[in-house]
TrEMBL record, chain A:
<keyword id="KW-0533">Nickel</keyword>
<dbReference type="InterPro" id="IPR001501">
    <property type="entry name" value="Ni-dep_hyd_lsu"/>
</dbReference>
<feature type="binding site">
    <location>
        <position position="64"/>
    </location>
    <ligand>
        <name>Ni(2+)</name>
    </ligand>
</feature>
<keyword id="KW-0408">Iron</keyword>
<dbReference type="InterPro" id="IPR050867">
    <property type="entry name" value="NiFe/NiFeSe_hydrgnase_LSU"/>
</dbReference>
<feature type="binding site">
    <location>
        <position position="42"/>
    </location>
    <ligand>
        <name>Mg(2+)</name>
    </ligand>
</feature>
<feature type="binding site">
    <location>
        <position position="550"/>
    </location>
    <ligand>
        <name>Fe cation</name>
    </ligand>
</feature>
<dbReference type="InterPro" id="IPR029014">
    <property type="entry name" value="NiFe-Hase_large"/>
</dbReference>
<comment type="function">
    <text>This enzyme recycles the H(2) produced by nitrogenase to increase the production of ATP and to protect nitrogenase against inhibition or damage by O(2) under carbon- or phosphate-limited conditions.</text>
</comment>
UniProtKB/TrEMBL annotation, chain B:
<comment type="similarity">
    <text>Belongs to the peptidase A31 family.</text>
</comment>
<dbReference type="GO" id="GO:0004190">
    <property type="term" value="F:aspartic-type endopeptidase activity"/>
</dbReference>
<keyword id="KW-0533">Nickel</keyword>
<dbReference type="Pfam" id="PF01750">
    <property type="entry name" value="HycI"/>
</dbReference>
<keyword id="KW-0645">Protease</keyword>
<keyword id="KW-0064">Aspartyl protease</keyword>
<dbReference type="InterPro" id="IPR000671">
    <property type="entry name" value="Peptidase_A31"/>
</dbReference>
<keyword id="KW-0614">Plasmid</keyword>
<keyword id="KW-0479">Metal-binding</keyword>
Length: 568, 159
């Protein structure tokens, strides 16, 4: 008999993402993803000065503030057809690269690894045997017996302390946990090291963005970083050399720890290449512009139809690409908004709340359902890596093959690109995207230095707003996937603003034609070994890095467990 | 002996932003010595680790959920400040508790942490606060001044 399993909230904060599954015969047979909180950023921005939109837009989210800032200025610049100085492009590219690398390390180690790593089991490991295992897969100097013994002691102290409860309340001992104690200790020690490296990466964002969280240096028309090699209050040679040092240190961690860890966990959990496929129409966009107009990009991408990398790929070419601009629509048929007009293009988008209650076959979410040429699409690191792969981006192809070869080596049998269409594949793709972004970050640093050496210190072009109505869109390949902001400006004021965010693409409810979203589709056929401990459901959802775009950040002294599972 | 006064919250969600608003009101009315930083942390995430780690004392100003009625003001000190990872799994939207727990794992937690908090009334979308919550901002500012005094810092009224 079918059981209903409800996980609410999946995200940390009450009132965000809820997932309902029907489980029959130990498998998910039906799924609903629901955003439980209304995000009204669009209404706040109406009537505001478009030059200020990014200041508000970056507060939409508690994690990816930077990405909304960049996308918002791009949308307004696009409407104005405003060019951006080369230095500003490079500085923005470095901020986004550093932010993304930081975010991917945090996601893998701190937000989702514990779905696969059993911390309690790590306490039983022999540190010397762990070192032997770790040294067999990587030459990382910190893979020493002493380092693992220290990490083990630290974890034990943590578990023994009363207040720091994470390591006492996980799904430890769950039958879906498969790593050996030694592999668990290796991953747990790297969890601790990753805390340090992600912080170093974020320093780059802080230096270039003047502050983080909530960078201060964006402007419609460029950035506000004055470049003067001799003045201490500006971007100096000393600061740029420090940035280079930070970038290099984190690179060693990515290539010698993150990539080998993902390959090892991928091999241990090879069965997870069979689950979590979901929607295989993939949408991502080119990013890191290399010219002032946004027509040449360091990282190409596009749309992949039905998972077909050879014949189903259409590139998205530039910041004004009409193929992209025309393809996006949002439906509210199954969302708690007034509708009836069919799917609307974001320029014509409406946000009129109309809460009814949960209806399995009707309205059940505050999230709208975006489509690309009337099809559901998956966005995120996997979509991006496949898009770069299909575009022929050489470093992406190199790293995809390197990771798959490492997994094949562990397993003793060949694993192909097809394995990426899966729960574990999304983690592998995120690692590939991280290393590719890191390499490009080094390149962008070089480009900025070379451009400054030529004597170009320009960072800003002044925007001029015409009378009448103009429209524009900005996009950015954010950590959780393709983000786009759409703006209609009338006489210098915002008339309409719509943010179509990555989680909207992946987590939306059923669309106008009843098609399900990437979250919903990826959960179908997932095993569920223990109904009231649905670790498998959580694993697949976490592989997307679920994040609902509006963040509540109360200090909460009451709630100790952040989600509840109900089996009905 | 560096001290961080950190405003937390999302200013787009009415009273959720009370911590940021109180921090701004404090910054507008009081000047502090150089070793005290007054920072708008906004919707904090892992990217706050470095900021907090570089200070010995943290005064976080935030909306709090304690079960008390809206507009109730609270000061949490020492073990009353939650520093644990909240729950079995940690997807996005990390709070102050998670940051403090992460810093303890790195042996870089501040020596003392105080939360100056206010229980919010409305968390809808909007840049304004409820009148009831706005009315307690001056008292929150005074509480920040007191906390600094407790750490041996004299804040001076701005002219």
């Amino acid at each position: 008999m079918a059981q209903r399993v409800v996980v609410d909230p999946v995200t940390r904060i009450e009132g965000h993402l809820r997932v309902d599954c029907e489980v029959d015969g130990g498998k998910v047979t039906k799924a609903w993803a629901s955003g439980q909180m209304w995000r009204g950023i669009e209404l706040i921005l109406q009537g505001k000065d478009p030059r200020d939109a990014w200041v508000f837009a970056q507060r939409i989210c508690g994690v990816c503030t930077t990405v909304h800032a960049i996308t918002s200025v791009r949308a307004v610049e696009n409407a104005l057809k405003l060019e951006v100085p080369l230095n500003a492009q490079y500085i923005r590219n470095m901020i986004q690269g550093a932010h993304n690398v930081h975010d991917h390390i945090v996601h893998f180690y701190h937000l989702s690894a514990l779905d696969f790593v059993d911390i309690v089991s790590a306490l039983k490991a022999d540190p010397a045997a762990t070192a032997k295992l770790a040294q067999s897969i990587s030459g990382w100097p910190r893979n020493s017996t002493q380092e693992f013994a220290t990490a083990q002691k630290k974890l034990q102290a943590f578990i023994n302390s009363g207040q720091l409860g994470i390591f006492g309340s996980g799904y430890w001992g769950h039958p879906a946990m498969k790593l050996t104690p030694e592999a668990n200790l290796m991953a747990a020690a790297h969890y601790l090291q990753a805390l340090d490296y992600q912080r170093r990466m974020n320093k780059v964002v802080a230096i270039l963005g003047s502050k983080t969280p909530h960078i201060q240096n964006m402007a419609v028309g460029g950035v506000t970083n004055p470049i003067n090699m001799d003045s201490q209050s500006t971007l100096t040679l000393e600061k740029l050399m420090y940035i280079k040092q930070l970038i290099d240190e984190v690179g060693d961690f990515i290539t010698q720890v993150y990539i080998p860890d993902v390959a090892a966990i991928g091999a241990f959990y090879a069965d997870w290449t069979q689950y979590g496929r979901g929607v295989v129409n993939y949408l991502s966009i080119p990013d890191m512009p290399l010219d002032t107009k946004g027509t040449v990009f360091a990282l190409p991408a596009g749309y992949i139809d039905n998972g077909d990398l050879a014949n189903g790929f259409t590139p998205i070419k530039d910041f004004h690409d009409p193929y992209f601009e025309k393809g996006v629509k949002e439906s509210v048929k199954h969302s708690w908004y007034q509708g009836g007009k069919g799917p609307l293009h974001p320029y014509d988008g409406e946000t009129i709340p109309n809460f009814t209650d949960w209806q399995d076959d009707g309205k059940y979410s505050w999230i709208k359902s975006p489509t690309f040429y009337d099809k559901r699409a998956q966005v995120g690191p996997l979509a991006n890596v496949l898009g770069m792969y299909a575009s022929g981006h050489q470093r992406t192809q190199f790293w995809v093959n390197a990771v798959l070869d490492a997994v094949s080596g562990h397993l003793g049998s060949k694993v192909g690109v097809d394995a990426l269409h899966s729960t574990i594949g999304r983690h592998a793709a995120r690692a590939v995207r991280c290393v590719v972004l890191h390499e490009e970050l080094q390149n962008q640093w070089k480009l900025l230095m070379e451009n400054i050496a030529k004597g170009d210190t320009k960072t800003f072009n002044k925007p001029v707003f015409p009378k009448g109505e103009i429209r524009g869109f900005g996009f950015h390949e954010a950590p959780r996937g393709m983000l786009s902001h759409w703006v209609v400006i009338e006489n210098g004021k915002i008339k309409n603003y719509q943010a179509v965010v990555p989680t909207t693409w992946n987590a939306g409810p059923r669309d106008e034609d009843g098609n399900i979203s990437a979250y919903e589709a990826s959960l179908l056929d997932n095993p569920v070994a223990v109904a009231d401990q649905p670790l498998e459901i959580i694993r697949t959802l976490h592989s997307f890095d679920p994040c609902l775009a509006c963040a509540v950040h109360l200090t909460d002294t009451e709630t100790k467990s952040h989600y509840q599972v109900k089996v009905v | 002996m560096s001290i961080l006064v950190l405003g937390l919250g999302n200013i787009l969600l009415m009273d959720e932003g009370v911590g940021v608003r109180a921090m701004e009101a404090f910054d507008a009315a009081w000047s502090v010595p150089d070793h005290v930083s007054v920072v708008d942390g906004g919707t904090c995430g892992m990217d706050m680790l470095d900021l907090i780690a570089s200070h010995k004392h943290l005064i976080a100003v935030d909306a709090v959920k304690t079960g008390a009625p809206p507009a109730t003001l609270t000061v949490l000190r020492g073990d009353a400040v939650p520093a644990y990872f909240k729950g079995k799994l940690s997807p996005h939207q990390l709070g102050l508790c998670d940051l403090l727990a992460s810093l303890r794992l790195q042996d870089e937690a501040p020596e003392s942490v105080t939360v100056v908090g206010c229980v919010p009334m409305a968390l809808g979308t909007g840049l304004m606060m409820s009148p009831e919550i706005e009315a307690v901002i001056p008292r929150m500012v005074a509480m920040i001044v007191d906390e600094l005094a407790g750490l041996g810092v004299t804040a001076t009224p701005r002219p």
